[in-house]
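Structure representation.

___
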Amino acid sequence: MTDKQIKILAAAIDVFAEKGYANTSTKEIAEKAGVAEGNIFNKFVNKRGLLHAIVTPVMQSFFPASMDTFVKTQLTKVYPSLNAFITALVQDRFAFLKQNSKVIKIFVSEMLYDQEVRAQLTTEFTGAYWHRINQQLDSLKANHLIVDWSNIEILKTMWSITGGAILGYLYFDQQLTKTSTDHAITALVKALSY
């Protein structure tokens, strides 16, 4: 991409994250990027094309790469307790969220409204992720460190509690402080204790 196109994408990320896709105009994006509005249409055709230029790389490259890193750094360890497992996962994912909040906010918004994005999301979870997370949960169950539920029920509980904190951070200006992170960890450990 040219420098101008990169400026347009960066501006679109900022404005979409701040105002939402529906409430953003191409004129606002062009002004923030310091370019003429026509430059947006030259490369991206329309506002939807610009949104897809953000979401598609997230789905095809950014998301799989981040999941691969997560698998290699967090899901290959042996955890001595449920608390250690939950703490490592929550702290890692919350740190990732803080570093990438604008793009994640755009992606989550699109995932909620676009069936195609939701369908693609389910295919982007790598086989390595599912293998390692199931292996971790099975190991914790075998050692009587976590409830003896199906792995999908355990994951839904984890996603529910952390999802509330994530949505609060992305959409309601609720900070992910040490205290709120500790509360999410405590809630998960209590919910999933054997």
Summary: Residues 169 and 176 are 7 Å apart (CA to CA). The mean pLDDT is 91. The longest helix spans residues 47-74. The chain has ten helices and no strands.
